[in-house]
Amino acid sequence: MAEAHQAVAFQFTVTPDGIDLRMSHEALRQIYLSGLHSWKKKFIRFKNGIITGVYPASPSSWLIVVVGVMSTMYARIDPSLGIIAKINRTLDTTGYMSSQTQNIVSGVLFGTGLWVALIMTMRYSLKMLLSYHGWIFAEYGKLSTGTKIWMRLVKLFSGCKPMLYSFQTSLPRLPVPAIENTVNRYLDSVQPLMNDEQFKRMEGLAKDFAFNLGPKLQWYLKLKSWWATNYVSDWWEEYIYLRGRGPIMVNSNYYAMDFLYVVPTSLQAARAGNVIHAILLYRKKLDRQEIKPLMIQNTIPMCSSQYERMFNTSRIPGIETDTIQHMKDSRHIVVYHKGRYFKVWLYHDGRLLKPREIEQQMQRILDDSSVPQAGEEKLAALTAGDRVPWAKARQAYFVRGKNKQSLDAVEKAAFFVTLDETEQGYRKEDPVTSMDTYAKSLLHGSCYDRWFDKTFTLVVFKNGKMGLNTEHSWADAPIVGHLWENVMSSDCLQLGYTEDGHCKGDINQNIPFPTRLQWEIPEECQEVIERSLCTAKSLADDVDFYSFPFDAFGKGLIKKAKISPDAFVQLSLQLAHYRDMGKFCLTYEASMTRLFREGRTETVRSCTTESCNYVRAMEDSTQNNEKRCKLLRIAADKHQHLYRLAMTGAGIDRHLFCLYVVSKYLGVESPFLKEVLSEPWRLSTSQTPQQHIDLEKNPEFVSSGGGFGPVSLGFFKTYLLGDSESICVVFLLYVCAQENLLSWLCSFLSD
């Protein structure tokens, strides 16, 4: 009970001699340090807000402009063309200032106005420059003179040393494509999937929509695009993620994996200590905006808004729709181990716990022999099952008393941690099964040992392997990928371990023990938990997972053949699917739209007329390799063109989705939109090129990538393509009969 006594700052008792007051100096000291830490964070955020608010200028540039204006005034030169004199006359009417003071104030006011005008001019100029996207369609390595000049202008107006959110107000808004363009591109995308009669019917529906109802819906959408920062993102988050009433486990949440070969330490507590500390260092940089914004070719900035809710955030279930609860700060995490929940404070003596101290806290949890309370062990199954039962249970059983306090601790934690009892990871003697089990464990685990509503759950396995399970609504995979790359790099190359596998540093016995969360879960709630667990287990058991390491080649070899690695794998999948199913299908690949403010994703429809021509040529024994190679390059170029269109706001699916939402608000039916939105994605693909560590210097630190669950009856793959000397890891759900397709294409391209 040491931690309980330390939590009380003072005690008093009433005696016949008066009141006996006892003060705890240690508790008061901790309160003082906590408050000091809080005010430091507020000051840093305030300072960063000013720096970001005036970017691409700097606060010091204000002084330079004002001093420059005052200098010209004393040289009897009027830089304001009479504006300073007008300000002076206005101040003179007040009668409170001397003539000299009026001159100084007038100069300062004009200098400030000039400074603000210069900032707005630079910012607007940068926004206009960033609205141009012709550079993305240029052939790789062959930039025109005009594009080079444009890039120099972007650099000129971009300022120096940008912070994470410095470019947010300078990014252009996502444009609304012309409805005719969207309809025509849609028809092009479905033509290879339909016979002549089906296509003629769809063409009639599309043209009728584009001529009649479409323009009316388009008008409302354009109105929203002028008013809102992004005409897609809020509706996408709400209707695609938060309003979904099915399980988010497997269906929405995704995972990230550890290094493929390297296990820095086999001590579970030590690995957790280093990784948790590395995550918190990343959060510290994020709070201070010290993370540099991602910039294409070190010039074109990308939106950083998705980083804002990475920590201290949880998805809250609702009857009709979920909500996202984000806290400005959180000073604790919640750890799950053997069916029990522990609250672990992250700060002591006003500072962040060191890796060895966090290891100590994790070891205390591992050594704790207490048993779960009634209903506690499988409580998190509520977050794995359907959303409505979870929402009703939350309203009925978690709004008061111990349950509310403990649930608040979970939902307001910086993030969630699971100390898993199983051993996972790649085993050389069993490469396929070991990777299957590892990936499935991160995707859904036991269905009750990850809190699927948290932005991410850090899973640390018994043998020191680790991974993440991530909730999808708040951000897309590249954001979490950036966190994970930095964490893995910091863990091994910066923090490191001692020879016996422990975190570096010393333990500190003065740190209070982790606190067990207390629950009073009635039998009725336990029945709801069991039903949610049954739903989740049924979903998890229905996922057939096949994962294997592929080291025949990587993206380096594909690039030597002057083909996009992404297009190469997409075309390989088209061929593999056709060989397995004997037909083509609607194919989904995610592309980012972060060139625009608050941009998230757009769909690249990978199955095209060109890709189908290539696949048919591969299956036609009368075709020679020269013809096949030509069709391969044509299909790859078409895929790259579609990818670039999606990145630059000229995609199909988000526009059609928003038009459908508007039609529902207006209460009008569109046979075209209804049919488009009901088409199933039989093949859903995505890529996670996650590799922060330089493989030339550290060839053993190859990442295993990550993945998503299947979106429908079909298969989902996610892949990581390394360099030509490194590994290519491919994850497949429902494996096609590939017949060594990738190896064949490898030798074919080499020839």
UniProtKB/TrEMBL annotation:
Catalytic activity entry: (R)-carnitine + hexadecanoyl-CoA = O-hexadecanoyl-(R)-carnitine + CoA
Pathways involved: Lipid metabolism; fatty acid beta-oxidation
Source organism, top-level taxon: Eukaryota
Active site residues per record: 472 (proton acceptor)
Compartments, as annotated in UniProt: Mitochondrion outer membrane
Keyword entries, A-Z: Acyltransferase, Fatty acid metabolism, Lipid metabolism, Membrane, Mitochondrion, Transferase, Transmembrane, Transmembrane helix, Transport
Gene Ontology annotations for the cellular component aspect, listed alphabetically: mitochondrial outer membrane
Primary localisation category: mitochondrion
EC number(s) recorded for this UniProt protein: 2.3.1.21
One of the GO biological process terms: fatty acid beta-oxidation
Pfam families: Carn_acyltransf, CPT_N
Transmembrane segments annotated in the record for this chain: 104-122
Family affiliation: Belongs to the carnitine/choline acetyltransferase family.
PANTHER family reported for this sequence: CARNITINE O-ACYLTRANSFERASE (PTHR22589), CARNITINE O-PALMITOYLTRANSFERASE 1, LIVER ISOFORM (PTHR22589:SF74)
Protein name, entry field: carnitine O-palmitoyltransferase
Gene: CPT1A
